[in-house]
Specification:
The complex is a heterodimer. Chain A is built from twelve helices and 16 strands. In chain A, strands 1, 11, 12, 15 and 16 form a five-stranded antiparallel β-sheet that branches. The longest helix of chain A has 32 residues. The radius of gyration of chain A is 27 Å and the shape is globular. A six-stranded mixed β-sheet of chain B has the order 8-9-10-13-14-19, sandwiched between helices. In chain B, strands 1, 11, 12, 15 and 16 form a five-stranded antiparallel β-sheet that branches. Classes of the chains: A alpha+beta, B alpha+beta. Chains A and B meet through helix 1, helix 2, helix 3, helix 6 and helix 7 of A and helix 1, helix 2, helix 3, helix 4 and strand 15 of B.
Chain lengths: 432, 425
């Protein structure tokens, strides 16, 4: 009997030890597999999932330690349960990317990111425009401009007459918190300083301005509205050449298509996934090509390179710069074609980003004849980061230069004609 | 013992061991084992993204910016922006990150003393023409030079202050104690502009202003003391003691305490001030998210103000600690509340200092008045207030356009005086 009890006890102790070991291993497996679950406060830059390049802040604190300490505080102390850490992450990314004050670097909430994805598939979501939020370096964070980059094929904005470089200042009668609104603020200040307004008039105007500000819509929300299919007409006000123009964009359901061919012209709407394969099929057995990349807002650099490899020989085709004032690094194709082709490329002011690189490369390496207007002047590479929860963000990762080292980016303060060649015009095509 | 019993015991032991092993990390953090994650651990379902940490997303994005971004942004500013963005995502208007400079100003406003540098001894409010003087502190450089409330500072050291951010202008006004600052000041009432050379000093911020109410409607009647409370700083109770003692010696028959525009401050300051009126009683209770209730009882031995009618003036800007004080006075029926419905800030914040000088300000609970009422405002989608705040016993408000220091035409103040007279008869 005694032996039996002792045996049971030993087995129980062993059972507990076995169970504990199993439980610990299972938990470790869970922590490892659930990469999105991170124990609060435990994150540091030593974490293998965190890039190694990070260094300490000026104050001697690790950014991760600082941030995760505050996240821990919120989790522990906030007067309501903090369950949705995804929302916290979105808030953090939104503000952090805005702090970069770069038009290409932005966080997109779910609907807006889905809109961006659709554009890269050749679609025209929402009112059918590709946008950039230009933030002017200023102590006043509200100095932003919501600029139309490209007016997409088949979209309602195209029918309504919206053009690239138009600034959208109002949606449904509500002002977007943008530069135009601040311009008004500054005009009131100036009129008062120059004694064109009395104190009472000044106060009245300021009060009106505050009322307007009260009902205004943040630029991020505006982008979401403009890129989302609502099925309803959207009234917008655009600023063009100093004039405010009201337009109504009626809902449409255009087909998403990256590459299409009609009347002998190959239209590339965006350099999205699969674009090169579609282009390869479209150019088969053709010696003369007319390629239309008007209102093409760019896309994946890799797709652009694959498209180029179908049209130009291997070797250098352009240059890029990884940081301001950095060296120009050659961009090369490992594979290419030596098949001679006569290429005409149609561009306009809605041809932007990677599409401008494509145009410059064809001009310089394939002696392509360029037709149409000047391009947007924003030849930058956008790196896209999909966060797997429906949101994502973009970062400007490089500035493009043509084969001769001329920038494809218009300087921010360049208001009139600029001498360098971001704009690829018909005349400049002769250079090639 | 039968074999089946032994097997059952061993299985139970294995189960206990498993739970213990799996939940060890949770137990060490003082919480129950998170057994809801077991299916995910066994691969039966995907890990929940609800628990994912914002820190991971932040560090990954910061790493991507480091590695990929065209440019070299200031990592410290990015970290502040991200942290602030995370706090804003909680959609609580009082939870925010204060960067080092903001944290210094906040400390000043809570402690009532200048931190770090000297100033002119005035509280300034934003105005499109330049900072508007809201209050001039007793014995400070501005008071000695004759600067008055409502004066507008047009220029600081020769540079126009119109349209500038208030903090930016204040940082140029502030400086080493003993140094001089040159101001051009405009007085709207007289339409005159005047220049001042002021020597900066480490002034004590004055939050309590006492005087005898002298207007046409008080002429020939018993004297009424009028005390303005601007902010609930740690020194408010002692400042009140000084001002009230002076008024008491002048033989006041009633007291009006003006809490209009008082946005609150330190919760303990409200309790300390209440002790001048209410002895040894519950002033407020604070409930945190775990349901833990902390009671704040006024200390004994500080009772100074009793036996005279008291009126509290409130408005839509009376908030937080000021509402705690007003609420306690109302619940114990020690004062008549005159004015407009108060703001309704029924949440308590705690600041958490961080090593770099910044501070995280976090709402940690809700407070309740002695009779158990919450003043927390409830608003609709357009920001219109549906409920909350303290409803005054007698409604009265300043007519639009009445200057803040125009006691003669201040309808609420006049009403307060009438109430005092009706009680002193």
């Amino acid at each position: 009997m005694k032996t039996s009890s002792a045996l049971t006890s030993i087995l129980c102790v062993l059972g507990i030890a076995f169970g504990a070991a199993g439980g610990t291993l299972l938990r470790a497996k869970y922590e490892r597999t659930a990469s999105s679950i991170v124990p609060m406060g435990a994150l540091a830059e030593s974490d293998p999932r965190v890039p190694k390049s990070l260094t300490l802040l000026d104050s001697g604190i690790e950014p991760g330690a600082y941030f995760s300490y505050v996240e821990g505080l919120l989790t522990e102390k906030f007067f309501k349960d903090v369950n949705d850490h995804t929302a916290l992450a979105h808030g953090a990314l939104d503000e952090m990317l805005a702090a970069l004050q770069d038009p290409g670097s932005q966080f997109y909430y779910e609907k807006a990111w889905s809109g961006c994805e659709k554009i890269l598939q050749g679609g025209a979501p929402g009112i059918g425009v590709d946008l950039e939020l230009a933030q002017l370096p200023s102590s006043q964070a509200m100095l932003t401009k919501l600029i139309v980059v490209s007016v997409l094929d088949g979209g309602s904005a195209k029918d309504a007459g919206v053009l690239p470089k138009d600034e959208i200042v109002k949606i449904e009668g509500r002002w977007i918190v943008c530069q135009e609104l601040m311009r008004e603020w500054m005009a009131i200040q100036r009129d008062y300083a120059e004694q064109r307004l009395s104190v009472d008039q000044f106060r009245e105007q300021i009060n009106k301005f505050y009322d307007r500000l009260q009902t205004s819509i943040p630029a991020g929300d505006a982008i979401e509205k403009l890129l989302t299919d609502s099925g309803q007409p959207v009234a917008i006000t655009i600023l063009r050449n100093g004039k405010l123009i009201d337009v109504v964009c009626k809902p449409k359901q255009p087909n998403a298509q990256l590459v299409a061919e009609s009347n002998g012209t190959i239209r590339i709407r965006a350099f999205g996934q699969g674009c090169a394969n579609q282009l390869a099929a479209a150019i088969q057995n053709k010696r003369k090509l007319v390629i239309d990349i008007r209102c093409n807002p760019g896309g994946y650099l890799n797709e652009v390179k694959q498209c180029l490899s179908l049209l130009i020989p291997a070797g250098e085709f352009a240059k890029y710069q990884k940081e301001p004032n950095g060296e120009l690094i050659p961009m090369k194709l490992d594979r290419g074609t030596n098949q001679p082709r006569e290429i005409t490329l149609i561009v306009d002011s809605g041809t932007a980003r990677e599409a401008e690189l494509f145009a410059a490369a064809l001009r310089d390496r394939a002696k392509a004849k360029l037709e149409g207007g000047p391009t947007f002047g924003m030849g930058v590479a956008l790196e896209r980061f999909d966060l797997k929860d429906g949101t994502g963000y973009t970062l400007t990762s490089a500035h493009f230069f043509d084969l001769h080292g001329k920038p494809l980016v218009q300087a921010a303060d360049q208001k009139t004609a600029f001498e360098f060649s971001p704009r690829i015009s018909q005349d400049e095509a002769a250079i090639g | 013992m039968t074999k089946s019993k032994r097997t059952a015991l061993v299985l139970i032991a294995v189960l206990i061991g498993s739970v213990f092993g799996y939940g060890w990390t949770d137990l060490m953090q003082g919480r129950l084992p998170q057994l809801s994650t077991v299916p995910a651990a066994l691969g039966l379902r995907k890990p929940s993204s609800e628990n994912s940490s914002a820190s991971f997303a932040f560090l990954q994005a910061l790493g991507n910016i480091d590695e990929k971004f065209y440019g070299s942004p200031d990592r410290q500013q990015l970290t502040y922006a991200a942290t602030d963005g995370m706090m804003q995502a909680l959609k609580d208007p009082y939870t925010m990150l204060m960067r080092p400079e903001q944290a210094d100003r906040f400390r000043e406003s809570s402690t009532g003393t200048f931190v770090g540098s000297g100033g002119i001894g005035a509280e300034l409010a934003p105005d499109p023409m330049g900072p508007r003087v809201k209050h001039v502190f007793k014995n400070g450089p501005a008071a000695q030079a004759g600067i008055q409330p409502e004066d507008i500072i047009l220029k600081v050291n020769g540079k126009s202050a119109a349209g500038d951010n208030l903090n930016k202008v204040v940082s140029t006004i502030r400086g080493e104690p003993g140094t001089t600052v040159h101001l051009v000041v405009y007085r709207e009432r007289t339409k005159q502009t005047k220049e001042y050379f002021l020597t900066r000093a480490l002034a004590t911020i004055q939050d309590v202003y006492g005087s005898i109410l002298k207007t046409s409607y008080t002429k020939g009647k018993p004297q009424i003391g009028y005390v303005e409370l601007r902010k609930f700083t740690t020194t408010i109770a002692s400042q009140y003691d000084g001002e009230f003692q002076t008024l008491k010696e002048l033989g006041i028959k009633g007291l009006i305490i003006d809490l209009r525009g008082n946005g609150g401050g330190i919760m303990q300051a409200a309790v300390d001030l209440s002790a001048r009126f209410i002895e040894g009683k519950l002033i407020t209770s604070m409930k945190n998210r775990a349901g833990f209730v902390e009671s704040y009882v006024s200390p004994t031995g500080y009772l100074t103000t009793q036996g005279i009618p008291i009126v509290l003036l409130v408005d839509g800007e009376t908030a937080s600690a000021a509402e705690i004080f007003a609420g306690a006075m109302k619940d114990y029926k020690l004062a008549t509340i005159v004015g407009e419905r108060t703001f309704g800030k029924g949440r308590v914040q705690q600041t958490f200092p961080l090593r770099d000088g910044s501070q995280a300000k976090i709402t940690i609970g809700r407070y309740f008045l002695p009779l158990g009422e919450s003043v927390d405002r409830v608003v609709d989608d357009e920001g219109k207030m549906l409920s909350g705040g303290i409803e005054p016993d007698v409604k009265a408000s300043r007519k639009p356009g009445t200057a803040l220091d125009d006691r003669e035409h201040d309808e609420a103040l006049k009403k307060a005086a009438e109430i005092i007279y009706s009680k002193t008869r």
